[in-house]
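Dear support,

We are seeing what looks like truncated structure output for some complexes. This example has two components. We would appreciate it if you could run it in full and send us the complete token output so we can diff it against ours.
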Amino acid sequence: MQEHVQLTQRQINEDLLSSVLKTPRWWWPAVIVSAAIFLTGIGAFGYMLNQGVGVTGLNRPVFWGVYMVNFVFFIGISHAGIMISAILRLTQAEWRRPVTRAAEVLTVFSLMSALMAAPLVHVGRPWRADLWVFPYDFARGVWINIRSPFVWDPSAVMTYLTASTLFVFVALIPDLAIVRDRTDGLTRKFYAMMAMGWRGTPRQWKLQAVAGILLSALVLPVFVSVHSIVSWDFAVQIAPEAWHSTIFAPYFIIGAIHSGVSAVATLMVIMVWVWGWGKYLKPDHLDAIGRLLIVVATTWFFFFFLEWVFALYTLEDPELAVRELQVFQWPWSGLFVVFLFTAYLIPVPMWMFRSVRRSYFWMFVTTILVNIGMWLERFLIIVPGTMRRGDFIFDWGSYHPSIIEILMVIMTFAWVALGMLVFTKLFPLIPLFDVKEGMVFRDEIRIGRRVVPASIRE
Amino acid sequence: MTPTAIGDDLFDKGKLRGKKFRNTVIILGILTLLGIIGFALRVIDTIGDGTHNTPIWGYHAALFAFILTAAQGAPMVAIAPRIAKAHWRRSISRIAELFGLVGVVSFLIYIPVAWVLPSMEDGRRTLWFYGELKVPAHMPEVTTTLVLLALTITGLVLLWVSAMPDFAMLRDRTTGSKQRWFAWLARGWIGSSKQWHWQKHRLGIVGAFYFMMLITAHFAYSVDFGMTLVPGWIDALYPATHAHNSLQSGVAITLIAMYVLYRFGGYKDYITLDQFWGLGKLLFALSLLWFWFWFSSFIIFWFGAKPAEEAVLDLLFVGPYLWIVFIVFIFAFFVPLWSMIWNPLRKSVWGPVTIASGVLVATMFDKIRLYVAAFSVSDLPNKHELVDILPGAVMPGVPDVLIWVGGISACILIYMLATRIIPPINVWEQKEVTLYRIHKPFHRTEVQILGKPD
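Here is the complete output from our reference environment:
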């Protein structure tokens, strides 16, 4: 963190509240386009409900298609918030300050998209969702099947969503008070209610800091458990042989961190380009994220390697058939090459160069590539996995997503975009109090002829 | 303290080694000899039998796995915080790096294990796709030996690169043959900007390489010397669990070494609560991860419940070694979880050290469970599924006990002797931090400011 611009509190307020107090010209068109796409997806969903899941490309034996891919993908993206926010907060990494809220908010909207993708859309009959949680029949004592992922997933995802929302809210309170003091009328009432009487007393600051640390520590096990549980949806099954692997939980989690942190980097660049927050989200921040991504991506690649090595180690025909399908048969082979190059082989060597890590443009390009690759990774696990050439499969049909599925996939992305746009209009996307605190804690030390950046806390 | 005073103090402490030190060295030397005798007895058993008699080497293989896991994982405690530029690491980085020397003992202990490993011609599943690729039947021995050799050498290089400025200081403070010896180790170090720049980069590169070698070594040994010996054991996560366990017990062993130096070495001015607290937090996090890794494997086997998986669970978890599973679970996870969430314990000197001792005990038992069990079924005729009646728990014989006592004593001995030559507290890093640390008034209080160069 060598670049440093000392800003006054007034400047910080002006810059970072600009998204809330002013409405740029592009904001409404962006919201309308996102909302239109989202509503088109909802329309497609309604059509599917009316006609049945036969309108999708799902067929025997491929019963899990792009809905599940999207579910896993958005759960992955949602890991960004906790990775950036909780871990970096606990380790007191100074560079986290302007990045945390965007990451946390991305978590919340991604989780909502994940919920939309799997429990709502994928199952085809969402009105029966109550039966995943409540007993079928009290009188006869027919209880829910706690061994079913239908119970695990909603429990885990809803816990994570609740914890993440609380996490965002607790960190928002001081900033809400600032907005409250700069608005009037109904708007002021709204922020006053949200700020819950925040006046910035020492006791309130202490409670807020303790709550932040406690939530960081408590949300971490939830973060780990969510994607572990999602991975176990796959791994506990013995039928698609390629899924029954012990590596799935860590492999999914590290993959989620890889795609999630990349998504945060993408979002940071968009924030700089759209809101002009280059003074806060500096190349230094991208550099730090780039270094983190090299470690995360390489660890992910190691788990990918383990997954493949042990798939081949089994020497079992059905497992080898799936692998052959993934690597040697068109179109999966083409997708596999694209996946490998976009998820690792292009971005990681590029991140080795400092100039790339510090470039907004190149970080945008490489992190987008990562998420294309990671989406394909999930696709290649799910679809060829269910197309397995196992025993007793009398229909080896392939899978092509229908227009309805494609619309609903686009809908989930539009939902995240719409959510982020609305959030930036209502709340500051960079935490003001955190940035101000960082300014207070920053210092410099002169050693010989060099000035070294320093901080009050380690 | 001024940088000069720090140098004087630390080098003076290095010279002071009393009667206790000498007596401990003598006792450890005797115990090491006993270990060699135990090893000789084990070799006689094997040769007398006329075969490699792999099953009786389980405890020896477990000893090697334990040292690889705990001692050779310790240098990571120096590498990782150094990359993260954490200042609190400065007093403990040398303590951790000195474990690189233990790699030499570890490698010697490994050689017999490679000797008794069955050839891939026995038809077992292997990583090397033996039948298809026509690789030599002893590829596991070849590759693991090369990887372990690379790990050991890298550990020594890391220690040497890190200690070079200290060797130069020792060169300038000694005379005669000692001076020549330190001059040779210091390789003309005069502390020029270029040399410091060089050293910083080498530490980063060697550290990264050590980490890669450590992961590769755990991968090779855990699979080729453990998993492949158990018919039907297919656990893709196992190498990663093994490597993670190395980080956990590496932190634990560093904590214990740190405590010994703090308590008996006279380094209380350098090893403070900060270091115990920092490592304690790391140990806590790694202990939680231990459970996650363990559970991620266990639930897939338990839920899948294929006959082969159930048989592996019987052998390694709920069968003859169930009591070991309980000990490991209690000391590697349960005790750290329920004790270290308590602030006064985590932020103390005795707390993290006590927990670390438990973690080391758990690691020791865990390696016994895994390798003794794996070696005990290595000669079963069916190489793809555990269909035979499982053997009972293999208890250690006299040679096994002697080998364990001797092996661990040899590791402690080499570490203690190394502290006679190399200062266990990194002198140059201690001096460096005095430049980066200042105190300043802040509102109505005074705070410590720490510089963090890029």
